[in-house]
Structure formats: C-alpha cells, structure tokens
Amino acid sequence: MLLGRTANGLYWMNRYIERAENMARLVDAGLRMALTRSQSSAEEWASVIVSAGAENAYREKYDQFEVGPVTDFLLRDPANPSSVLSSIENARQNGRAVRTALTRETWESINEAWMSLKRMLADPIDERDLPSVLDAIKRETALIRGSFHGTMLRNEIFDFCQLGTFVERADNTARILDVKYYVLLPSISWVGSTLDTSQWESILRSVAAHRSYRWLYEGDYKPRQIADYLILNGRMPRSLAFCYRYLTESLRFLSQDYGVRHACHATAETTYAKLSNSTIKDIFDAGLHEFLSDFIRDNNQLSDQLASDFQFY
Amino acid sequence: MTAFDEMLPQVDGLRKPYTGYDRWLQTQQAQRLQDKMRDAERVFRKTGITFAVYGEEDAAERLIPFDIVPRIISGAEWRRLTLGIEQRVQAINAFLDDIYHRQEILRAGRIPKDLIARNAAFLPEMIGVRPPAGVYTHIIGIDVVRTSEDEFFVLEDNARTPSGVSYMLENRETMMQLFPELFQKVKVRPVENYPQLLRQSLSATRPEGSSSQPTIAVLTPGSYNSAYFEHAFLADQMGVQLVEGQDLRVVDGHVAMRTTEGYKQIDILYRRVDDAYLDPLTFKPDSALGVAGIMDVYRAGNVTIANAPGTGIADDKAIYSYMPEIVEFYTGRKALLKNVPTWRCSEADSLKYVLEHLGELVVKEVHGSGGYGMLVGPTSTKVEQDAFAAKLKSNPSNYIAQPTLSLSTCPIYTDAGLAPRHVDLRPFVLVSDRIQIVPGGLTRVALKEGSLVVNSSQGGGTKDTWVLDD
C-alpha cells in the first residue's frame, strides 16, 4: 500500500534528480560548442536555454546569451525552478517527505548530494571551475542512482520512481532534438562541413551519447542515424524508445499489482507501439518536428494521467 | 554546592556502574576520541537527524549535539526507577479516565474543581468518551532528574506527544558504530526493539471490531515540523504509513487515507499533531493538519487516537503539583517517585513567597514547554527578575515555582578531556493492557558549563543512555 502523496513525491523526486543531471549535460554540451567554435557562441547558448525549456524566464532577466549568465541561470539561479540548485532542492524536499519509502542508502545519497551541491553552487562559478562543477553534479546524481538501484526493493515504490525518471528523460531528449531538428534535416545544404558536424556532436553530447554513437556507427555523423539513435534505438539509455520501454514495463507491474488498468496505460502503450513500429524514414517522411511536438505533448499528457490515475493529489 | 556526579563523585573516585566503561576509557587515546566525536557529527548530518528551532533565521535544520560519553544506570537503579514510573503512569491513566467520567477525585475534594473546569488543557469534548481499550496515554515520557545517590525526582510528565525517542535509538546506533568493541566489554540492555514494542502496544489498543492486524499510521504535521525526522523514523521502523492531514478523510464512518488504489481504512492513528489541530470541525476551524470529522469517528469507537485527545490535563504544570495526591488516590499507596516541591502562584501565600525568593527559584509557565518563558533564578540578573516579577503579578495563576534542584552531572567529552555537565532523563513508557518501559531513554545534557537547561532548543545535547544488564 502506498499513499498517493508518497507516489507523487517519489515521482517528482526522480524527475528532479534526472533534471539536475540533464541540465549539467546541456551546459556541458554548450560549453564544448563555445570552445570549439570560433565565433558567435551566443546562438549556441540560446539553443541551450531553449532546450532547457527556460527561454521565457531567462529573457525576463537577461538580454544576451553568454556563458556567464546562461550557466549561472541553469546551474544555480534559485529563481529558475529547473536550475540544478532548484532541482536538487526539490528532489531533496520530495525525498524528505517520502523518506519512509526510501532505503537509508538512497536517502543519504540524496541528502549528501544536496549538501555538497548547495555548497558548491552557493557562489557564482568561475568559468575555469565549470568543468569540475559539471562533473561533480553528474557524479552526485550517479551516486544517487547507484544507491537507488543497488538497494531498493522492486515494488510499487520503485515503479513510481522509474516513471518519474523516464518521463523526465524522454521529455529532455525530445526537446533537445526538437530545438535542433533543422540541423538533422536532409535539406540542409552544408552537410559535411565542420560546422554542422559540431552541431551534431553537440546533440549527442548533451545526451551523453557522443562516444557510444561512434562505437555503433564508426564515427560517421549522419543526421538520420543520429535521429534514429536517439529516437528509436532501444539500447541507447536516453532514447525515446528506451524510456518508453521502461515506462510501459513499470506501468505493467503496477497494473499487475493493483489488478487495474488506467488511461495512462493506454497512453504509454500507444506511444511505445509507435516507437517500436516506425522506421526513421517514416518519421522523416511525416515530419521530424511534427513527430517530436506530438511526442512531447503525449508525454506531458501521460504525466497528468499518472497524477490522476494514481491519486497523487 | 557541588552537584552529584554520576561517574566521578567527590567522595570516592568512580561509581560502580561506570567501572567497565572507565577501564575501556583508560585505554583510549585522546586523539582517537576526538576523531570519533567528529565522526559522530558526520553520521548525524548525513542521515539528516536534524531538528528545527522555531523563530531562528535559517534554522531550517540543525543538529542536536551528541556527546560520546554514555550515561550509565545500573540494573538495580533502573528496577527501582521503573517501579515508580509504572505506578505514576497507572495513576495518570486512572486520573484521565476519572476526570472525563465521574470525577471522583473532585468529589472527594482532593484537587480543586476550578483547576480542571477552567483549565485550557481539559477537553469538554472528551467527557463521557472512553477510548478503545481504555488507554489514554499510549506513549508517555516521564522526565526524571537525580540529585544524589538515592534521590530521584519527577520533573514533568509528558502525556501529550512526548518526543525524543528517535534520539534514544539513533544515539545507541551511533555509539555502536563508533565503539563496537565497547559493547563487547560492557553488557548494555538493548533498546532497539522499541519500534516493534510500540507497534505491538498500539495494536493491542485497536478499536473493538477491527481486524487483529489493524492498520496503523503516524500522523505528522509535515516535513517542516521540527520533529519530522522522528515521525518519519518511527513510521519507517514500525513499517507503517506516515500520513499528513491532506492524505486523510472520513469515509463510511472510518478514518481513511488516500492511496494509489483509492481510500484505505486506518484503525489506529499515532498522531504527532496537537489536540487543537486534530479536527477542524471540533477544534481550530482553520487547521489543515487534522481530519475533518475524526472526533465523530472517535466517539463512535471506530478509531484509536494515540495519545487520546485531552491527555494534556494530566501533564499541566498546575496539576503536576497535585501528583502525589493523584498517585495516592488511584493506587492507594504513597508515590514511589518524588515530586519537586511546587509553589502554585495562584495561591496568595505561595505568590508572596515566590516573589520574595525569585533569586533561588525556577519559575515556569503553567502551559509552557521547551524551556521557553521560564526564569532560572540563580543564573538570572536583577533586571530579568524584576521584569519577571511584573509578569508574575499581572497573571499569577499562569505560573508555578520550584526550588532550583542540584541536578546530577555526568561527564561530557571536551577537547580538554572529561567535564561534568547537568543531565536529566526521559524514559519512554508504552501503555496497552500492560505497561512496558524500554531500558534506557533520552538523556539530555546542558552543554554549557553550570547550565541547568537541557532543552535542545536552548543549547542542550544528548547522550546514549545505558541500563546495565547486571
């Protein structure tokens, strides 16, 4: 038996942990682009902000897209509800509220991540320290994930955590792709120049897939392959197909435990079927941007349905 | 006057209960102990064993300082103490039942009627209500202080929602982590089965007609409450749900919680929410911490509320002064544990005496707790005393006064070695069809040299409390 409020706390705790990690990766990719491109990093930083879903909030505060303000806003601005600092605070607050549902190791890893990131992000970050700060964020979230997977019983508590993680991750990967979908379209004429290669690499890097891509595709950056990898490859842990494999699996466990199916089950299964039965050609033919917008909308709908189907409120 | 030290008394070197510990201590290097002290703080901070202090900026989470020297009680001392505590707890439950039913003790003229009728802690809503299994104080913490080898006094009966038991458990856990070898050398009675005992004890007070595997939940005001850690800890250790008011509602004449599969009935609610917030329909209408209609469910006998509403009348400081009479009235025997002599400022003679002796007395608010709103005469300035005297005169019945007891001390570990500090003791008592006391309790220690105030909100710390298996 699990309280609806607890399920809600577990779900959001994991969304926020995932979000903190994703923010660090986005900034990391942006930083890499800014370093490797000689001019106009502003455009790159702007797309980082858009990928983070923080454009409106950012524009309220700043006019320019530059490394200083962007990293500050995404990593440590308490006014940005999705900054790493806000995310880890929210994750920890949710974790504290559902503490009885977590193993001691899991709770301690969250609490320690919160303590150390709070300290690290207390003051503005010197640009020279950025790489080590980003590493630390990724390391802390990895430690949380490690203790979580190593110690948690695979029951409904685990399932609601998984739902939070993969709804957030799917949303993140889809948004990164959607912000840059135009560089993946075949109509772009400058294919092959160093410029777009770095754009593609940036996409892969922001979902931690730049190395594994090279193992699979032997270093050849081809836009269609990149899209295929991040959308349909079921073995790539941040792909949409991978996220939905785990979402449908967790939901199946819940329906077995509870003996009930809800609207969310149908939504997740429909999306998963679409991902399993499409080829990347189908998606490009029907329009990559349209596909991604629909996906983001359906993914949000799933999140709302989880809240009402499992009495989060 | 020098206080009685429980480890190293003035007269003869080392008290017997501490011999085993002392032998071990002599073999320890100072540096290692200092390292262990820092380890302890890290352990507490990491696990998030924190509390909040109201009214302090950025005090969201602070640690209660932990001292690594245990407070040790011999088996014989403990047996003596528990007899007195059992008697007192029995009397308190009989008193509560009487006061909400026939009020024999008032008819017999043993305590003044006004003291009950005009007391804010007396809940008229409880008149004629008999809680499931007849238990009022499922969990009660009796604060005991010691002044000499043989003298113990009860300072306070915490009959509402005594807190601190999580520290008793975590302190032991921490000590066993820091000094595992020590527990091989000294045989200490275990306390770690408290959560199971609590669960069994609560189960034994389930409402009539509920399943023999009743559903228990801990009701917390929420994660911003100063004792939230303890609420979560107890729920976790008992393996029951930790609920908030927003999770609960009355469904078909029962209290029920909103789960991922809909509403599920609760039989026993271990509430850590004050009476006033329990039911917005009966008490504070704007309370979001309780459950609308729970008092109706309670009166119908369909839920156990632990502790029962209205138990505050038994730990009121004005009632406290009548405890010797109360114990004798209900148990037919003299109280085994002493009360601290108490002047009720509502009585003219007493008030006069108190005003004349402010510099020697401790004056407390009748309904106060946590060490707030009190005057400790011997350590106060003349200005503070004058200000307090004015408050006293304007509302005498709000105050009681007690002599400053020479509380016993127990050494704490400082950078300069052992140093004596004043301590008190809160054993935790479980009441169902019987009374159970876990061998141990919460020892609070005033960390400031000479200070008598042990409350954590006033800079007190805690120690592991050992009852020897001898």
Automatic annotation (TrEMBL), chain A:
PANTHER family: BLR5612 PROTEIN, SLL1039 PROTEIN. InterPro entries: ATP-dep_Glu-Cys_Ligase-2 (IPR051680), DUF403 (IPR007296). It comes from the Bacteria. This is Alpha-E domain-containing protein. Residues 2-310 form the DUF403 domain. It comes from Mesorhizobium liriopis.
From TrEMBL, chain B:
InterPro entries: ATP-dep_Glu-Cys_Ligase-2 (IPR051680), CP_ATPgrasp_2 (IPR025841), UCP005522 (IPR016450). It comes from the Bacteria. Residues 70-446 form the Circularly permuted ATP-grasp type domain. It holds the Pfam family CP_ATPgrasp_2. This is Circularly permuted type 2 ATP-grasp protein. The lineage of its organism: Bacteria, Pseudomonadati, Pseudomonadota, Alphaproteobacteria, Hyphomicrobiales.
